[in-house]
Design goal:
With 336 residues, chain A is an alpha+beta fold. Chain A has 6 helices and 11 strands. The relative contact order of chain A is 0.18. The chains are: A alpha+beta (336), B alpha+beta (452), C alpha+beta (162). Chains A and B meet through strand 1, helix 1, strand 9, strand 10 and helix 4 of A and strand 7, strand 8, helix 6, strand 11 and helix 8 of B. The complex binds FE2/S2 (inorganic) cluster (FES) (2 copies).
């Protein structure tokens, strides 16, 4: 009987937003005479989809079509301050800054449309498809593009807005630790199923099933991408990844990918996930954040599953085959 | 475009919109910092310490300076202003103690000593290999416990016990909530264990790098894949002793990060080299650099001691954590605070005490990685939850549901919970995985605590 | 050091390269010929970001000294873009969100192309085998596998783009 199966679970929460506060991020929005809305920022997209998510937030808050929104980011001359991509802060901080800027630009846009239609700006609505109309009277309408043109050439008005989101500093009390450490919490729970080869010590993760609660999802496709990518990273962290395989010695430190164990494509199991949405009042359109937490519940779930399969007590990662074989030897010795 | 990416007209939020750069990614046309071609660009290679802990007796750069293609050579003498990294000082959490280029001492194998700038990368590498440093070796320490033991080799005069001193001279980032000692005395069971993680490399497929370009107007343009442009600009300016107004950072599109590009380790060096060489300079970590000298996720040792009642309620939790920060602090205090504030995890425990130490060893310095401070906290807590369940012969799901925080509960950092959803998340996972929970556990909610 | 003149065909164009010492195909393509789709994730043969086709076969450009490539035909992703011969694969990558940061993606597309040219009806195992030399730190591979599967399905149905 060389193969043993086990299951394990883990549940986590994750603090969203830069710990201790004091981390401003800004955005500037303006309409171009070519018909686009440019959002200038100096935030960084690492591949998680910052530009996509900010475009969605800007389009929604402006009430204009998504494809007219340009995200111009990554330039410290043209974009306002950003405290960086990290700490699961970007969707929350930059998202709130973009909303503030977009709201101001929207109100400038509606002021121009109101003059064009000779109504009060308060009576105007956008359809998100490129039109502005009087609430309840769809025929009484003007397009966003015409409004921008009229603002520029007829009324001499800039359609633009500013946003800067800043959470005040909240240092931790050195004695008690009292502080406002985060802006909201996201949650996750994972069940892992594993099969362990007791001869080779190798672990196969058979499945990872998780539920996530991350507030409102701005973009479910990108959220899923983070969860699947994080599940893979978690398997690597749990089973093989380290720059110090014989910690605390510095021996056998890897110099390249061939010797730095990352999980191979063939070791990737099915990943199932379900999303719950408890919109956060502090987040942009109720969003929390997801990028950083995605390895946190799978790692302990997998180790708990290994312990469950083998009736072991492993408490350190990574759980390499060597670790498992030594633990099984110790278990056998103890049983004698 | 497939059906699933069609978005509902008029509403952008909540839709599975295709990643903006996906079309350019699949054609290989996304522009990363390295894809910007800069004429007459030089390359930089750093000569690094070959020993883990030593006094520097002499730095001889004469052969490097004569080496083929070498344009300039920088030592600590070429660092005009602060001489030390000021990581995260912008947000007020770390003092500078790490030299940009070592002067009198090295504290880890890989510490930068001399930067060699040459026409080609190969020539820079050859030049860097010709730098000769004479060391007087010092005893080194690689283990947290050994570093804290009396008589251990000391890394910093200002931190004689090899751990960072938090405000008011506290040895650790602390949480003190309730009366843990009293609660332990009254608890039915004590469950205690130590959990460890090891250093991990962020390993984005694109390594960290920057090209610094002197402009004719006295400003410098830095093309970079930094995760934080504004802070990096300010940090680089401070180190170079110039106004941040003279720097223009362009980036925003990185080939992955995971915390591996928040160190600001690259840009100041590239800037100093460009200033000295009066030409554009590229400084880029090789993969071997990423594996050996770029900051890792720290090794964390988390000891948890819980007081538990027979019915599964956790009434007291003591946490002692040692973060092996390596030879320099970088932004480790941030991780320590975050780790401390996360305790006791997503559970309501009325009596909590936590101490999180930042311990110096002669290892490669550690810093941020995805889930900084929280990943090791979650790992230890969730391993401990299963250990408690086993000790009590209780179902691990029920143990977690029973202790999960509810809205209105007081957290150890003295703020009420108002956005809890752990109970619902656990229940959803139970349904998804076919785990059958007893009816009263199915009825639980984050809104209120039933039957207590 | 004596530079040897090497003749190559890159994306259908004849190139004459002065190959000094061990200069790699990756350096020539990226730095001398400006083929930016050839990425550099390791320069050690460990990540696949520099994948290209050499005489139709998958190769890691960072490991190939140009001096050994006299007469070879090289195809980079730029070449596939011009002929639109990876169009179906690229479309499937987009449909399946098979990239996040995109740094591994040109190499992935090249590997997928090499696979499907050789084996138009790959199994899931064949796909995993084919991309096993291409590392991706972002996606967890599942969307990439699905994308290649779906591209194979489309091509089998006589999909266009070839
Ligand atoms: S760059 Fe060639 S395999 Fe990594
Ligand atoms: S998408 Fe980032 S490495 Fe693959």
């Amino acid at each position: 009987m060389a193969k043993k199966r086990g299951t394990g679970m883990a549940a986590v929460s994750y603090p969203i937003g830069m710990h201790l506060g004091g981390d401003p991020t800004g955005a500037l929005v303006h309409a171009t005479s070519g018909g686009n809305f440019v959002v200038a920022m100096s935030s960084v997209d690492l591949g998680q989809g910052l530009k996509t998510v900010m475009a969605q937030i800007a389009a929604e808050a402006l009430g204009v079509p998504l494809d007219t929104v340009i995200i111009d980011t990554g330039d410290t001359d043209t974009g306002p301050h950003c405290s960086g991509t990290g700490a699961s802060r970007t969707t929350h901080r930059a998202g709130n800054a973009v909303i503030a800027a977009a709201k101001e630009a929207r109100s400038a846009m509606l002021d121009v449309a109101a003059e064009m239609l000779e109504v009060s700006a308060a009576d105007l609505e956008t359809d998100g498809k490129g039109n502005i109309h009087v609430a309840g009277v769809e025929e009484k309408s003007v397009s966003v593009a015409e409004t921008v043109q009229a603002g520029t050439f007829q009324f001499g008005k800039t359609i633009a807005g500013r946003g800067l989101f800043l959470v005040p500093k909240s240092p931790q009390d050195p004695e008690t630790g009292e502080s406002d450490p985060h802006s909201t919490q996201a949650h996750a729970c994972t069940v892992a199923e594993v099969e362990v080869d007791t001869e080779s010590g190798e672990v196969e993760v058979l499945s990872l099933k998780s539920a996530y609660e991350i507030g409102r999802q701005i973009n479910p496709e990108l959220v899923k991408g983070q969860i699947v990518g994080g599940a893979w990273m978690a398997i690597g962290h749990t089973l093989c990844e380290t720059t110090a395989p014989y910690y605390p010695t510095t021996e056998h430190a890897p110099l390249d990918f061939l010797n730095y164990g990352m999980t191979g494509v063939a070791e990737m199991p099915e990943v199932e996930c379900e999303l719950l949405e408890f919109p956060s009042p502090s987040g942009p359109f109720g969003a929390k954040g997801v990028g950083e937490m995605v390895a946190n519940s799978p790692i302990p779930a997998i180790v708990n599953a290994i312990n469950n399969a083998l009736d072991l007590d492993i408490s350190d990662i990574p759980v390499t085959p060597e670790v498992i074989l030594r633990a099984l030897d110790a278990q056998a010795a103890g049983a004698d | 475009m497939s059906e699933k990416h069609k978005i509902e007209a008029g509403h952008a939020v909540g839709q599975p919109v295709t990643l903006r750069e996906l079309e350019s990614h699949v054609k290989g046309q996304t522009v990363y910092y390295e894809d910007v071609k800069v004429p007459r660009m030089l390359h930089l290679k750093v000569h690094r310490s070959s020993v883990a802990h030593a006094r520097i007796l002499d730095i001889d750069t004469s052969r490097a300076e004569q080496s083929d293609g070498v344009v300039s050579v920088l030592t600590y003498r070429d660092v005009p202003a602060t001489k030390v990294w000021t990581h995260f000082e912008a947000v007020g959490i770390a003092p500078g103690a790490e030299p940009i280029l070592a002067l009198d001492k090295v504290r880890w194998k890989g510490e930068p000593i001399v930067a060699v700038v040459a026409e080609s990368l190969k020539q820079a590498e050859d030049g860097a290999a010709k730098v000769k440093v004479t060391y007087e070796k010092l005893a080194s320490v690689f283990d947290v416990d050994a570093a804290l033991a009396p008589g251990a080799p000391n890394l910093f005069d200002c931190w004689p016990d090899n751990h960072y001193l938090f405000p008011d001279d506290h040895a650790a980032a602390q949480i003190r909530f309730g009366d843990a000692e009293k609660a332990f005395a009254e608890a039915d069971h004590i469950v205690e264990h130590v959990y460890n993680t090891r250093p991990i490399e962020q390993a984005p497929i694109e390594t960290a790098g920057c090209v610094a370009v002197p402009g004719s107007d006295g400003r410098f343009t830095l093309y970079t894949n930094s995760q934080s442009l504004s802070n990096t600009r300010n940090n680089a300016a401070e180190i170079a002793g110039i106004s941040p107004a003279r720097l223009h950072l362009i980036g925003g599109t990185a080939g992955g990060g995971f915390g591996g590009k928040v160190d600001m380790a690259i840009e100041p060096m590239a800037l100093l080299a460009a200033m000295k060489s009066k030409r554009p300079v590229k400084y880029r970590f090789t993969r071997e650099d990423e594996m050996t000298v770029s900051s890792t996720r720290a090794a964390w040792r988390v000891s948890i001691k819980d007081g538990v009642m027979q019915d599964g309620r956790i009434v007291a939790r003591y946490v002692t954590t040692h973060q092996d920060v390596g030879a320099y602090l970088r932004n480790s205090i941030y991780g320590a605070f975050k780790h401390a504030s996360h305790m006791p995890g997503p559970y309501t425990v009325p009596n909590v005490s936590a101490d999180v130490f930042c311990v110096f060893t002669n290892r490669t310095p550690s810093a941020a990685m995805r889930g900084f401070g929280v990943m090791p906290a979650s790992f230890a807590i969730e391993m401990q939850m299963d250990r408690i369940a086993k000790a009590l012969r209780m179902d691990p799901w029920q143990l977690r549901l029973k202790n999960a925080f509810r809205n209105g509960d007081m957290k150890a950092h003295r703020r009420e919970v108002w956005d809890a959803a752990l109970v619902e998340t656990i229940q959803a996972t139970a349904r998804l995985s076919g785990k059958d929970l007893p009816e009263d556990y199915k009825q639980m909610s984050s809104q209120k605590r039933l039957g207590s | 050091m004596t530079a040897k003149l090497v003749q190559l065909t890159v994306n259908g164009r004849e190139e004459h390269i002065a190959a000094d010492g061990l200069i790699s195909l990756q350096q020539v393509l990226r730095e001398k010929l400006d083929y930016n789709t050839v990425k550099d994730g390791c320069t050690q043969g460990g990540c696949g970001a520099c994948s290209v086709l050499v005489d139709g076969e998958l190769a890691l450009a960072c490991l190939l000294p140009v001096s050994r490539l006299e007469g070879a035909e090289i195809t980079t992703l730029e070449g596939l873009n011009e002929s639109n011969s990876a169009g179906v694969i690229q479309e499937s990558f987009v449909e399946h969100s098979a990239a996040q940061c995109g740094f591994c993606t040109s190499g992935m597309i090249i590997s997928a192309k090499a696979l499907l040219d050789e084996n138009p009806t790959p199994s899931r195992d064949d796909i995993m085998e084919a991309i096993s030399g291409n590392l991706c730190r972002c996606t967890g591979y599942l969307p990439i596998i699905e994308a290649v599967q779906s591209a194979a399905g489309k091509l089998a149905k006589g999909g266009d783009g070839e």
